[in-house]
């Protein structure tokens, strides 16, 4: 009934090779392994760091977003290998994939046994459409693991209560939220709605974001991020619903333990029982 989670505040900086990217990822994963974590969460769009490698022609020009999918195979192989070696579930942030000429901002779950599952971002921000011509995913997935049922909702997705309600109705007790925000306004939109979703649905939310800067990569020059483990706001949990959080904009990893039994307890006899008290006679439910 308990699981340990780690969330990475991934430091973006210019690199010169995939091997440098792999070394940075591995360092974070090994740190989480030392804490004996069950899940490790990386941020949204952290693989845009690979765009800073450029084309190797000495121009110093970064790759364009449509060229990032060329690293998909190496990215997957890296995370699959680390998941197998460590026995942890790795949520590899998001990576841009291409399918039928469309780009999708896609989160990946790497199981310790080598399986790979994915969740495409469902709600696309105006700048993702205008700047990158990103397409939206069309289905919500929930994932069964040996530690419980989870869902992965990417950044802007958390600002839509309906989709989180749907994940909870399908049995998810923990929502992992990889995000990437460029300023305080965007960061707080995601953070405040994560708190709201834990209260509405009596679930845990684990969130993290990118920090640092990619000076040569369009739309990735500014990052404002902080990892957090967020709980319902009730007596068995920390005041304010914040189990732990990182230092804003620092390169670091946070870790905490989630007790699923406490969720079941407050759903039945908490100070408030928001999930049980839904008025589905007045508004729709999600099955």
UniProtKB/TrEMBL annotation:
Keyword Hydrolase: yes
An annotated Gene Ontology molecular function: hydrolase activity
Leader peptide range in chain numbering: none
Domain CN hydrolase: 3-260
InterPro entries according to UniProt: C-N_Hydrolase (IPR003010), UPF0012_CS (IPR001110)
Organism superkingdom: Bacteria
Protein keywords: Hydrolase
Family statement drawn from the similarity comment of this UniProt entry: Belongs to the carbon-nitrogen hydrolase superfamily. NIT1/NIT2 family.
PANTHER family noted in UniProt: HYDROLASE YHCX (PTHR23088:SF50), NITRILASE-RELATED (PTHR23088)
The protein, known as: Carbon-nitrogen hydrolase family protein
